[in-house]
Specification:
Blueprint lengths: L6 H18 L11 E2 L8 E3 L1 H9 L3 H11 L6 E7 L3 E6 L1 H13 L13 E5 L14 H16 L3 E5 L8 H12 L2 H5 L3 H17 L1 H15 L3 H25 L16 H10 L3 E4 L2 E4 L9 E4 L7 H16 L3 E7 L3 H13 L5 E7 L2 E2 L15 H19 L5 H21 L7 E2 L2 H4 L7 H21 L15 H11 L1 H10 L3 H21 L7 H24 L9
Parallel strand pairs: 5-6, 5-10, 10-11, 12-13
Antiparallel strand pairs: 1-2, 2-4, 3-4, 7-8, 8-9
Helix pairs in contact: 1-3, 2-3, 4-18, 6-8, 6-9, 8-9, 9-10, 12-13, 14-15, 17-20, 17-21, 18-20, 18-21, 19-20, 20-21
This protein binds one RNA strand through strand 1, helix 2, strand 8, strand 9 and helix 12.
RNA sequence: GCCCCUGUAGCUCAGUUGGAUAGAGCAACGGAUUUCUAAUCCGUGGGUCGCAGGUUCGAGCCCUGCCAGGGGCGCCA
């Protein structure tokens, strides 16, 4: 166990294990005894529920077990109280001085005690993955923002992360696009090619293909030419990709998202025949209705088609080839895919195929609920898609409006910079604060919330801490608040310290379960406690000893908020 | 028909893997500003945790059945 994770709980549990041992040592070993934060501050700071569990095997009343345990050893100095409540809860109240020591350990540790859980092991995170020749819309925000947070979380935990943007740059749509590009665009439009033009071309070409079989045939033949390496089609295709990537990069820049690799599906194209060959050699892939399939009856799933009856490869083939390639090149411990919920079956199927191939890499599909509009799903045809960039624009615009109103003396360029930090932060936070697996109904109002449980609430809390720290630095120059003595006399102060203690375990858990929302919830709760503390406990106006102690607490809150929001990819301006 | 997910306050959601009187935000109402940033804080009202059984000291959480919504189910990704 890392010494910074659940530090208090571990120390207290160790003491309780000894107490159980002293009371009932002969019966069984007590290494499973656990301590957790109290569910309610009225009960104390920590609690242990295991006496009730033990009562079963000991065949004694739960309260009697708890009493015997507490009677077995004297109360250690770290505790001010240990008492039994209800059916047999053991409630523990810790000494403020002891708690202060413990939180000081985290504060002094790098990144406030985030453990080195990865120890250099590799994890590939496959996220965002937009399709070439289509603008990114609000449906892409979840994969991008959630994936990026998982990226940052794993890096902080000591993993070697390879963030890979698996672009949709290969597939049947390119026949439609190439033929449409030649037919529906003027020369001028082809010169100054935009992604909007490409999207229009695609819709036009797609619609025509449904009514005009000859058109469909010509598109198919362009696709075949592309796949056979025809120079002209290849050049057009590369142009589509270049234009799309320029577009994507602009969005990623605004979102502060960076990838280690951007390998489209096409990257794996040459590996497909060999991949299929391996499946056949191992006797996993068999002919069925002209296609090549892997039977997954034992796994309770329908067959996985790896080669179409026309001889072409599909996405399952690409995905399997991608795993082979990644395993060979990076030897990852874990590969995480972040996509929407509709692909669950596909991932379960191809994970099963990988297992049959003998891959031990832990494959994980992090799926998220589809984003939809209150009036229903959005679609290109209905023309109700919201472009990702318009969402970002609107977020920044609304943030700027509020800044201008409440912070009119701030220089214009600083206002704009702040509007970006707050606007983008608000969008990221609304997404990250929800469990990925919930369906989100998109409304401007919710996505851009600026009060309550929102990104700006956290940023505001941080800015207020910073303001205090700056003023303290003027009052007491040349003193690092983190070296001050920590008192924790007030209940709020103790609550704040207890909450700070939970940061490392929260980060670890958020990464383990691939839910950034775990961290977001924690940070909101911490900010709430801090805001409450801020309101009722004057810092700079207090007596010197109290002032110094409180500012140290503030400094630690600042450490955690900056660190935690950073892990979510949310900016922390020092001034708002 | 089969598989996966969801169902908690008027709305949007948490609920630390089975613990104590189920919590936040928004909305509503009532307060706090000679104040370290009011994008804040304090308080009030608001609940048959979809329904019915079961498991046990104890269930929002686990098991079974049903109801409702979403998604998926052989050559799209």
């Amino acid at each position: 166990m890392h010494e910074t994770v659940n530090r208090c709980e571990e120390i207290l549990a160790e003491w309780l294990r000894q107490a159980f041992q002293a009371a009932f040592g002969e019966v069984q070993d007590w290494s499973g005894i656990r301590v957790q934060p109290a569910t309610d501050a009225r009960f104390g700071d920590f609690q242990c529920n295991d006496a009730m569990q033990a009562a079963k095997t000991l065949r004694r009343p739960p309260r009697a077990v708890a009493e015997a345990v507490l009677a077995a050893l004297p109360l250690p100095p770290m505790l001010t109280r240990a008492e039994i409540a209800g059916p047999g809860f053991i409630n523990l109240t810790v000494a403020p001085e002891w708690l202060a020591e413990q939180v000081a350990v985290l504060s002094a540790a790098p990144r406030f005690g985030i453990p080195d859980a990865g120890q250099g092991r590799t994890v590939v995170i496959d996220y965002s993955s937009p399709n070439v020749a289509k603008p990114m819309h609000i449906g892409h925000i979840r994969s991008t923002v959630i994936g990026n947070a998982l990226d940052r979380l794993h890096r902080a935990l000591g993993y070697r992360v390879i963030a890979d943007n698996h672009l949709g740059d290969w597939g049947t749509q390119f026949g439609l696009l190439i033929q449409g590009y030649r037919t529906f665009l003027t020369e001028a439009e082809r010169e100054a090619l935009t992604i909007e033009a490409l999207e229009r071309v695609y819709v036009q070409s797609y619609n025509r293909s449904k009514e005009d079989p000859a058109w469909l045939e010509s598109c198919k033949s362009e696709l075949v030419k592309l796949q056979q390496g025809d120079a002209e089609n290849r050049a057009i295709w590369e142009r589509f990709i270049a234009i799309s990537r320029r577009e994507f990069d602009r969005v990623y820049g605004r979102l502060d998202v960076a990838f280690d690799l951007t390998r489209g599906e096409s990257y794996y194209n040459d590996m497909l025949p060999e991949t299929i060959q391996v499946l056949q050699d191992k006797g996993l892939a068999v002919e069925s209705e002209g296609a090549l399939v892997v039977n997954l009856e034992d796994e309770g799933m329908p067959v996985c088609i790896v080669r179409k009856s026309d001889g072409g490869f599909n996405y399952a083939a690409t995905d399997i080839a991608t795993v082979r390639s990644r395993v060979a090149e990076f030897d990852p411990d874990r590969i995480i895919y972040v996509t929407d919920e509709r692909q669950q079956l596909h991932f379960r199927q191809f994970f099963a195929v990988c297992a049959k191939l003998g891959y031990t890499t832990h494959l994980e599909h992090v799926w998220f609920g589809l984003m939809r509009l209150p009036e229903g799903t959005f679609s290109t045809r209905q023309g109700n898609v919201i472009k990702l960039e318009s969402l970002l624009d609107e977020a920044e615009r609304r943030a700027l409006e509020i800044i201008k109103a409440s912070n009119s003396e701030m220089p214009e360029d600083e206002q704009r910079e702040l509007a970006v930090a707050i606007g983008i932060g608000a969008i990221k936070y609304t997404d990250l604060s929800h469990d990925p697996q919930t369906m989100i109904v998109f409304t401007w109002e919710k996505a851009l919330a600026l009060e309550g449980n929102s990104g700006p609430y956290l940023q505001y809390a941080y800015a207020r801490v910073c303001s205090l720290l700056d003023k303290y630095a003027e009052q007491v120059p040349d003193r690092d608040p983190l070296t001050n003595a920590l008192l924790l006399d007030e209940p709020v102060e103790k609550a704040l310290a207890l909450q700070l203690m939970r940061f490392p375990a929260t980060v670890l858990r958020a990464a383990e379960v691939c839910k950034p929302s775990v961290l977001a919830d924690y940070l909101f709760s911490l900010s709430q406690t801090y805001s409450s503390f801020y309101q009722r406990s004057p810092v700079l106006k207090a007596d010197a000893a109290v002032r110094d102690s409180r500012i140290r607490l503030c400094a630690m809150v600042a450490q955690v908020l900056a660190e935690g929001l950073g892990l979510l990819g949310i900016c922390t301006p020092r001034r708002i």
